[in-house]
Design brief:
about 425 residues, alpha+beta, Heat Shock Protein 90, 12 helices, about 65% helix, membrane
């Protein structure tokens, strides 16, 4: 990840600081030496001693600062740099005693006290440097009361000023370190965020693929249910009526009745097939409410299959979500189709009950019960016929429940319960 501008500025400042620490001591040593030789070198102060100490200072700086600049500020090299600072201050003190003009060079003690010593130890370094510079400013060490008073005033002033600067520098350094830590943490957080976003993009793409596949599967199941509940049931009814007509060919009245029923079922199946393709509601629910549509379904089923059937509606009828009404109508169709196929019943009762927050549909017959391969004793919806499986799928889509009870010789009862106010967007998700 690209580094922030704030981090770049801190790095630039640090590089400039290292360059200054490497050049300033040489400049100040040269300036002090030049002034000592050219401007004023008091008698009795050997030039050889000045040259030796000045050369020692130059060698010390060259070894520790020029050749090994990376030692400065490193914790594992701190001991060596403390030795360097002590030696540098001793050399500076010796030069100041030889000539106070070397107080210019002694000032570098402040630089390296900040750069080398950790934390509060810097105060010790700047205090020693302040005493050396105070001696240079006083013209040498005190020799009497007046010079001692002057030296003391200068020492206090230098120590106070250098100590304040050192303290503020320490506080600023801590703030910079804290700021850099925050910047590094933010950069790391941004890296993790970018990684998470890339992972989320991958997951999002995967979810889109899964959602697309689920949509395709859901649409296939919807079409399969519609085909089963309309075309397949209609064709089964047509086949039944044509078989009955074949058996009654010698009785013209019965033959015509069965043929007319087969024609009616064929027309209805064609209409339902077209409506399924257009994905609109079933014809019985268009222009009528659910109780009327169920009543018409029960009446026509009873007439086609010659089985007594009756619808009872309890509670106050209320409008339901269109998909809930379609579900209840299709469940009633499938239940009556199963009665016609398997039950051999003589009587069927259909009950539609409106309650405060639920609606139930019960279909009961007095037949022989469901075959073992279709009955609830098989235990799992996957072992049922496609009709019962489609029934469960429809009911699940509207957040409802299905119960099937069947006993040989007693009959079958199918009970469906759905919410009166179903959240179809949530239930279908």
């Amino acid at each position: 990840m690209r580094r922030t501008e704030e981090t770049d500025r801190l790095d630039i400042w640090r590089r400039r600081q290292e360059t200054a620490y490497g050049l300033i001591p040489y400049v100040m040593l040269a300036a002090s030496g030049s002034l000592s030789v050219v401007v004023s070198r008091p008698a009795g102060r050997p030039l050889v001693a000045v040259a030796v100490l000045g050369g020692s200072a130059a060698v010390l700086l060259f070894w520790f600062v020029t050749l090994h600049p990376d030692w400065m500020g490193r914790a594992d090299r701190r001991g060596r740099m403390v030795v360097f600072l002590v030696a540098l201050l001793l050399i500076a003190a010796g030069l100041v005693l030889l000539d106070p003009l070397f107080g210019i060079f002694a000032w570098v003690g402040y630089l390296y006290s900040f750069a080398v010593l950790p934390g509060r130890w810097r105060l010790a370094g700047v205090t020693a440097t302040a005493l050396i510079t105070a001696t240079a400013q006083a013209g040498g060490p005190p020799v009497d009361r007046d010079s001692g008073l002057l030296w003391g005033i200068l020492a206090v002033a230098n120590i106070g000023l250098a100590g304040a600067v050192s303290w503020f520098s320490l506080v600023t350094e801590r703030q910079n370190a804290h700021r850099k830590q925050i910047i590094d943490e933010l950069a790391d957080a941004n890296r993790r965020l970018e990684l998470t976003m890339r992972e989320n993009d991958g997951l999002h793409a995967q979810l889109l693929v899964q959602a697309r596949e689920a949509g395709v599967l859901d649409e296939r199941q919807r079409l399969a249910r519609e085909i089963h509940d309309t075309i397949a049931q209609g064709l089964a009814g047509i086949v039944t009526q044509l078989e009955a007509a074949e058996r009654a060919r010698d009785r013209r009245a019965d033959w015509k009745r069965h043929a007319d029923l087969a024609l009616m079922l064929a027309r209805e199946s064609l209409t339902e097939a077209r409506r399924s393709v257009r994905a609109i509601g079933p014809e019985p629910l268009e222009g009528s409410r659910l109780p009327e549509a169920l009543a018409e379904l029960v009446r026509r089923w009873s007439g086609v299959h010659e089985v007594a059937a009756r619808l009872v509606t309890t509670g106050e009828a209320q409008p339901l979500h269109p998909e809930v009404e379609v579900t209840l109508l299709r469940v009633a169709q499938e239940a009556l189709t199963n009665v016609a196929k398997h039950a051999a019943a003589s009587r069927v009762g259909v009950t539609l009950s409106y309650m405060i927050d639920r609606v139930t549909l019960d279909v009961r017959d007095d037949g022989v019960g469901l075959p073992p391969d279709l009955g609830p004793e098989r235990g799992t919806p996957g072992s049922e016929s496609f009709g019962l499986t489609g029934m469960r799928q429809r009911i699940d889509r509207v957040d409802g429940g299905l119960t099937i009870e069947s006993e040989p010789g007693v009959g079958t009862a199918i009970s469906v319960t759905v919410p009166a106010s179903a959240d179809l967007d949530r239930a279908s998700a």
